[in-house]
Write a structure and sequence with these properties.
399 residues; alpha/beta; Aspartate Aminotransferase, domain 1; Aspartate Aminotransferase, domain 2; 4-stranded antiparallel β-sheet; 11 helices; binds pyridoxal-5'-phosphate
Length: 399
């Protein structure tokens, strides 16, 4: 008889985006003449930059020749990409990470989801609320106990320490969905907590490239002691339009250890390498060559232009909503604008209102957790024309 991992029955059916798609489809069927604009799901709209495209073409040509063909890739990534990441993202920022602490992957979703493979099921987990749903769902899949840490205007979106001592803590800054950040001093408090309680911080820095203000850490390793307590996840998805290409990386410092039930101390770096070499196929050579090109001077200039374009969208959305008297958060160091719904209507009521009256789609905050109820997320990843059109429609709705 086949026995199910019953924890899978405890997680929802990926309800959020399925429900959005369903409601939009129903609306379009009833109103075929109306054009709906989406500032919802958060996928990118701008083309991959020329430096990356050129590198991909070149790598593709290499595959056409048996002399330059590349077969199975190293599980942890090619040296050329690891060296570029190391130099640009860490050494140039004064962070002493080593090459064998970097694991190239197919993106932060896989790594934030799979990291639980090497962590015991009895770990007490703390996750900020609202949050990127992968953290809660993957821990539920393994039956772990989770404490949610509400992030609301009342605590300025800075989570309080958990009531029950946490073994593993998920932090995501700049945050999806709230768009808020932690200062160095605020993040240091969490690193100190982890050092004191021997906890592990899983730090999701997928949006670090969108930080515009000083004193906001781009990496948790800017905080002293963090290499003893933190794993960091990075993504090329939003930084360089890689949502369809698939690439990211994870830092697992060699200083990080965990205990077995027999009291042995083992390296998490070694365990993650073991996990990846068994279960992960590696990121495609062509894609890794594309990712390497992000770090060239041309690549950097080009992706910065695209990031600035998205952040100009964020400014437009934030300014327009505030001009209507709506209360917004985020949108300065992150491509997400988190809006308090007017008159305290529910997130889904606001969704229906925007869709029916303005034909604009966003994401109901309650889909990211209980503390997201009464909020709504807009993304800055649209193109300029539809972003401007969306805010015009919202203005009309409210006037
Ligand atoms: N982490 C956060 C906070 C995200 O918002 C996302 C994507 O939306 C991811 C990770 C996934 O990134 P990737 O596309 O690299 O898998």
């Amino acid at each position: 008889m086949i026995k199910l991992n019953e924890h899978y029955t405890e997680i929802g059916n990926n309800y959020l985006f399925a429900e959005i798609t369903k409601r939009v489809k129903e609306y379009k069927e009833k109103h075929p003449d109306k054009i709906v604009i989406s500032l919802g799901i958060g996928d990118v709209t701008q083309a991959i930059v020329p430096a990356v495209i050129e590198a991909i073409h070149k790598a593709t040509d290499e595959m056409a020749n048996p002399k330059t063909l590349r077969g199975y890739a190293p599980y942890e990534g090619y040296d050329f990409l690891i060296d570029a990441i190391l130099k640009h993202d860490f050494l140039e920022r004064g962070i002493a990470i080593e090459a064998d602490e970097i694991f190239v992957s197919d993106g932060a979703k896989s790594d934030t989801g799979n990291i639980g493979d090497i962590l015991g099921y009895e770990n007490q987990i703390a996750i900020t609320d609202p949050a990127y749903p992968v953290y809660v769902d993957t821990n539920k899949m393994n039956g772990r106990e989770i404490e949610l840490l509400p992030c609301t205007p009342e605590n300025h979106f800075v989570p309080a320490f958990p009531a029950k001592t946490a073994d593993v803590i998920y932090l995501c800054y700049p945050n999806n969905p709230t768009g808020t950040v932690l200062t160095k001093e605020q993040l240091k408090k969490w690193v100190d907590y982890a050092l004191e309680h021997q906890s592990l911080i899983l730090f999701d820095a997928a949006y670090e490239a969108f930080i515009s203000q000083p004193n906001i850490p781009h990496s948790i390793y800017e905080i002293e002691g963090a290499q003893k307590v933190a794993i960091e996840f990075r993504s090329f998805s939003k930084t360089a339009g890689f949502t369809g290409m698939r690439a990211g990386y994870t830092i697992v410092p060699k200083a990080l250890t965990a205990q077995t039930s027999k009291g042995e101390t083992l390296s998490l770096n070694m365990m993650w390498k073991r996990r990846q070499s068994t279960k992960f196929n590696g990121t495609a050579y062509i894609v890794q060559r594309g990712a390497e090109a992000i770090f060239t001077p041309d690549g950097q200039k080009q992706i910065r232009r695209v990031i600035n374009y998205y952040m100009e969208n964020a400014k437009i959305i934030k300014r327009s909503l505030e001009a209507l008297g709506l209360v917004t958060y985020g949108g300065v160091n992150a491509p997400y604008i988190w809006v308090q719904t007017p008159n305290h209507i529910s997130s889904w009521e606001f969704f229906d209102l925007l869709l029916n009256k303005g034909q604009v789609v966003g994401t109901p905050g309650s889909g990211f957790g209980q503390a997201g109820e009464g909020f709504f997320r807009f993304t800055a990843f649209g193109n300029r024309k539809s972003t401007l059109e969306a805010v015009e429609r919202i203005k009309k709705m409210f006037s």
